[in-house]
């Protein structure tokens, strides 16, 4: 291969070799409190084992995490009234606010980066990222490469999703304008 090997090396060096403060913060959130808050905010009430599965963590790790989060007032753990063997974990109002604040801080930081890049380069970056992630969604290490039909289907699915998201944003904008 030619440029592909060089591009892989550059990608790995750029993404994993130069960990920025923001990446470290995001990775911290991928394994602990921030991830649990995002997951509970997205899914709703969960059992500790469901949370452990979603985090790819041990039940012991999640138990320790939940105890710390409960102590901080971010979550509650309650016995399921229908099955006393089951514990249900939910976010408190403070937990929801903590998650909202963290997401807003991350959003503000990314918006600043995009403002530095400018609109044209940001849109190019997003288009290329979407394309790259579409390929990533169908290509598995150690498996046969996707067929042209599988590639076409993946991009058609992506285009439908993008179209639906754009339509939803348009409806939301219309609603804000009172249309």
UniProtKB/TrEMBL annotation:
Residues 146-179 have a biased composition (Basic and acidic residues). Residues 1-134 form the HTH marR-type domain. One of its GO terms (biological process) is response to stress. This is MarR family transcriptional regulator. One of its GO terms (molecular function) is DNA-binding transcription factor activity. Pfam families: MarR. It comes from the Bacteria. Residues 141-179 are annotated as: Disordered.
């Amino acid at each position: 291969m030619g440029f592909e090997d060089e591009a892989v090396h550059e990608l790995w060096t750029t993404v994993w070799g130069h960990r920025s403060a923001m990446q470290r913060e995001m990775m911290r959130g991928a394994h602990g409190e921030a991830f649990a808050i995002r997951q509970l905010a997205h899914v709703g009430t969960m059992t500790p084992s469901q949370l452990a599965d979603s985090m790819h963590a041990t039940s012991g790790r999640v138990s320790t995490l939940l105890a710390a989060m409960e102590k901080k007032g971010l979550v509650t753990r309650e016995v399921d009234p229908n099955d006393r063997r089951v514990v249900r974990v939910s976010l408190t109002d403070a937990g929801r606010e903590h998650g909202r604040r963290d997401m807003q801080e991350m959003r503000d930081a990314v918006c600043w980066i995009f403002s530095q890049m400018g609109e044209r380069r940001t849109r190019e970056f997003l288009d290329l990222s979407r394309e790259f992630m579409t390929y990533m969604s169908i290509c598995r290490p150690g498996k046969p490469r996707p067929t042209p039909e599988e590639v076409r289907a993946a991009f058609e699915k992506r285009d439908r999703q993008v179209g639906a998201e754009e339509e939803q944003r348009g409806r939301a904008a219309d609603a804000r304008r009172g249309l």
